[in-house]
């Protein structure tokens, strides 16, 4: 069923203070209750599945307003499945740390939270049986959209989706897949004054706690161990999940590294980056909140950061929303497929199997360092991510094999893998959102990167030394 705007307003209006009407969509044809007299249910349910935070969350605040309108309690729920696509213990630990933070912070606001095991849509459907209204946040990936469609079509009450993980809603920006940052930039920036605004926390009036059983988040090791998941990729000690921790990381960045952000953001031997991508991926921080913090600073550092946070992040959201094959080689542009196919039979000076790549067993010390950073820390400096991916194309037996290998490694080891940005960035390696360049062996006209080019623009030997120190740190902390 096609989503439609809620009756709360049309373009240019707010449904509630700070919640723009364009963020809000009805997902089914059931009427929303208008007041206590037609509220048939014990509570309002906020099915929190993407925006996993208790603050600066448009879906949560909308749900609180609606609960107050209906004089009902609010129940916030999360469905935890064992087999989330491509996820492992590394991802689950970061997620659970964030959900423990959600439970604690919602508790401070007298709002009930429950974590239940099960396929997320099934959890929502079960809890919706006693709900007068279901509010859900928004996810853009294929399975996330399907979950919401399944719930909307099966429950007996209105389901309202509230966008809270992009600055400007995707459909408002464009009605088609954009070609590049240059085409989407003006379409986003014309709306920023309207959407880059604070969101006030609203007090829940009926604080009665619905009696619903769930999982215990006080012992994350036990909960993680109870899940039937891939435990071969361990959690990393360098990063802790949750809004509270994410805000600490953001403040440390602004205090200690922001002044050199523009100068050093493409210098992998430094650490002048924000580390926000992982917190954004799990919905633990709002992009609007981060942008408002950045806007307190003026100058080129702020401009460069906002370009990355808003334009470069929301171009991938546009990509996965309008391109059904976003996780497939078939999605890359025709010109890129053509030139890669023309060079498919070119001799590979160096060739490696997926296993050799995963073990960082190549002749290239810079690439090996990048792979080691990824495996041991769940992170890789963005400039090295580009080099890392380009070399996989160069060293693989075919571009199709390279695509599968890159996506596999990306999703398995990165904390922020399996994200719209991940799928778009992997596709970018093969020509998406890019243009043709000088023709070369193997890659054809697809952009090429070399070790020599890396050395001319950065200090990769220092990067290798940095990775060595990080790996030692991770191994030491893991032993503790």
Automatic annotation (TrEMBL):
<dbReference type="InterPro" id="IPR006050">
    <property type="entry name" value="DNA_photolyase_N"/>
</dbReference>
<protein>
    <recommendedName>
        <fullName>Deoxyribodipyrimidine photo-lyase</fullName>
        <ecNumber>4.1.99.3</ecNumber>
    </recommendedName>
</protein>
<dbReference type="Pfam" id="PF00875">
    <property type="entry name" value="DNA_photolyase"/>
</dbReference>
<keyword id="KW-0456">Lyase</keyword>
<keyword id="KW-0238">DNA-binding</keyword>
<dbReference type="GO" id="GO:0003904">
    <property type="term" value="F:deoxyribodipyrimidine photo-lyase activity"/>
</dbReference>
<dbReference type="GO" id="GO:0000719">
    <property type="term" value="P:photoreactive repair"/>
</dbReference>
<dbReference type="InterPro" id="IPR036155">
    <property type="entry name" value="Crypto/Photolyase_N_sf"/>
</dbReference>
<keyword id="KW-0285">Flavoprotein</keyword>
<keyword id="KW-0227">DNA damage</keyword>
<dbReference type="InterPro" id="IPR014729">
    <property type="entry name" value="Rossmann-like_a/b/a_fold"/>
</dbReference>
<dbReference type="InterPro" id="IPR036134">
    <property type="entry name" value="Crypto/Photolyase_FAD-like_sf"/>
</dbReference>
<dbReference type="GO" id="GO:0003677">
    <property type="term" value="F:DNA binding"/>
</dbReference>
<comment type="similarity">
    <text>Belongs to the DNA photolyase class-2 family.</text>
</comment>
<feature type="domain" description="Photolyase/cryptochrome alpha/beta">
    <location>
        <begin position="42"/>
        <end position="170"/>
    </location>
</feature>
<dbReference type="InterPro" id="IPR052219">
    <property type="entry name" value="Photolyase_Class-2"/>
</dbReference>
<keyword id="KW-0234">DNA repair</keyword>
<keyword id="KW-0274">FAD</keyword>
């Amino acid at each position: 069923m096609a989503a439609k705007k809620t009756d709360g307003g049309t373009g240019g209006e707010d449904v509630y203070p700070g919640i723009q009407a364009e963020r809000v969509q009805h997902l089914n044809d059931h009427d929303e209750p208008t007041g206590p007299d037609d509220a048939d249910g014990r509570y309002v349910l906020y099915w929190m599945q993407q925006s996993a935070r208790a603050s600066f969350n448009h879906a949560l605040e909308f749900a609180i307003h609606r609960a107050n309108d209906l004089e009902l309690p609010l129940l916030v729920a999360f469905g935890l499945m064992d087999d989330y696509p491509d996820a492992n213990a590394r991802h689950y630990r970061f997620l659970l740390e964030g959900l423990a933070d959600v439970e604690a912070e919602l508790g401070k606001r007298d709002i009930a939270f429950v974590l239940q095991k099960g396929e997320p849509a099934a959890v929502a459907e079960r809890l919706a049986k006693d709900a007068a209204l279901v509010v859900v946040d928004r996810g853009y990936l294929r399975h996330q959209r399907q979950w919401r469609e399944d719930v909307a079509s099966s429950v007996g009450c209105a389901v309202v989706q509230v966008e809270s993980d992009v600055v400007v809603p995707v459909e408002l920006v464009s009605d088609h897949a954009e070609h590049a940052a240059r085409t989407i930039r003006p379409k986003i920036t014309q709306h920023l004054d309207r959407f880059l605004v604070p969101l006030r926390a609203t007090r829940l009036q009926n604080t009665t706690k619905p009696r619903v059983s769930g999982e215990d988040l006080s012992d994350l090791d036990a909960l993680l161990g109870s899940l039937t998941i891939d435990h071969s990729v361990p959690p990393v000690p360098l990063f802790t999940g949750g809004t509270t921790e994410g805000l600490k990381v953001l403040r440390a960045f602004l205090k200690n590294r922001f002044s050199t952000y523009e100068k050093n953001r493409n210098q992998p031997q430094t650490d002048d980056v924000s580390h926000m991508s992982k917190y954004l991926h799990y919905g633990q921080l709002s992009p609007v909140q981060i942008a408002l913090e950045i806007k307190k600073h003026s100058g080129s550092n702020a401009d460069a950061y906002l370009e990355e946070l808003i334009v470069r992040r929301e171009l991938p959201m546009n990509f996965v929303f309008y391109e059904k094959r976003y996780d497939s080689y078939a999605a890359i542009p025709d010109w890129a497929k053509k030139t890669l196919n023309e060079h498919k039979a070119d001799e590979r000076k160096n060739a490696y199997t997926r296993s050799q790549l995963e073990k960082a067993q190549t002749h290239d010390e810079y690439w090996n360092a990048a792979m080691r950073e990824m495996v041991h820390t769940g992170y890789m400096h963005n400039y090295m991510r580009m080099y890392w991916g380009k070399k996989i194309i160069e060293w693989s037996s075919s571009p199709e094999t390279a695509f599968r290998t890159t996506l596999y490694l990306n999703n398995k080891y990165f904390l922020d893998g399996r994200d719209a940005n991940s799928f778009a960035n992997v596709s970018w390696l093969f020509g998406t959102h890019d243009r043709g360049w000088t023709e070369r062996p193997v890659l054809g006209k697809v952009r090429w990167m070399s070790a020599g080019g890396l050395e001319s623009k950065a200090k990769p030997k220092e990067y290798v030394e940095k990775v060595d120190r990080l790996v030692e740190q991770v191994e030491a902390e893991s032993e503790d």
